Amino acid sequence: MYTAPSQPQQPPQSQYPTNIAPMAYPPQPVPQGFAPQGYPPQGYPGQSPQIYQPGPAGVPGYQAVPMLYPVMAVPASGLELMKLLTGIYLKQKLDAIEAFVAYEKANKYKFFPIDQNGNKAGNAIFKAKEKSEPCDRYCFGAGRAFEMTIKLVAGDQEILDFLHLQRPTVCCRCDKGEMTVTLLEGGSQVLGFITGPCTCCQLLIRVFDSHRNLRYSLKGDACQCSIVCAGCPCEKCRVTYFTLNDAAGNVISTMQRRSKFFRAMISDADDFSLIFPSGITVEDKCLLIASLIMMDLSLIHI
Fold first, then answer.
1. In whole angstroms, what is the distance from residue 127 CA to residue 125 CA?
2. Does the pLDDT at position 41 exceed 70?
3. Which of 267, 230, 260 has its CA nearest to residue 101?
4. Cα–Cα distance, 232 to 127 (Å, whole number)
5. What is the Cα–Cα distance from 28 to 19, expressed in whole angstroms?
6. What is the DSSP string of 95-135?
7. Model pTM?
C-alpha cells in the first residue's frame, strides 16, 4: 500500500500579537535610603545621575526603568563626609515644654549641609544631644557642665559616634571656660579646645588645635539688636552676625545665628549657619562645628 509522505508540521501560532512594542514604564523615584550604585549619595553636595536598565534597541515607545541598589544614604565615615562639606547648618530642636513652661531642658541639635547662600540643604547628617544635670542647668545656666556626642546619622539610623564635646562647670558668669573636642572615629584623639574668654561688648569664641595654638576666632558685636532685644520677632532682631577670623585676625568667613518669627517669641532655640573657609583641613572643620555648640550653650543661653 502506498503511503503519502508526511508534510512538515508548522509551529503553532501564538495566541498573542507579536507586533506590539513593549509597554513604557515611567521612571520610578529613588526611595529614601537608596541611591544609584557607584555615585555619591543623594541629598549631599552634588547630584547623582540615575542609572537606567538597558532595554531593547530600536523599539519605539520604550522607556528605560531605573535600577535601584541599597546603598548607604551617607558615607560610612564621618571624616570622608566632612571633606565634601562647604559649610554646616546647625538647627536646635524646639522643645514645647521649655518654650511654654520656662524650664531649661537638655538641648538637641541636628546638622545639615548648606547651599551656596548658607541655607539648609538636604537631610540631617549629624545629630547631638546635650548631657547635663537639671540642677546644673537651673543653678549655673550657661556655665553648666555638659558633654555631648555628635553622631553620624542616615535618616533615623545612627551610624557611628563621631565627635565628643565636654566642658566642666564654670562658676564665673564672664568666663565661659574651656571645651575639649575629641574625635571618636577610629579611636579617641583630642582635636583641640574651644574657649569663651571674658570680653566687653563683644561675643567671642576662640578655637585652638591640640597643641593649643590659636586657629580661629568667632567674633560678634554684643550690641546687635538680636542680642539687646532678644525675643523680638522683627526681622532685624532675628539675625546675629559674626565674623570668622584666622589667627592673624583676618576675616576669612562669616557665620549667622537665625531665629524664625514664632520661635523668637517663645524660645531661645536658634539656627546657626557657617561657611567653611576654602582649603581648611577636616580637623579644622570639626573644630568649627564644635565652636557653634560652644557659642549656643555659652553665649546665647545667658
1. 7
2. no
3. 267
4. 28
5. 27
6. PHHHHHH---PPPEEEEE-B-TTS-B-SS--EEEEEE--HH
7. 0.71
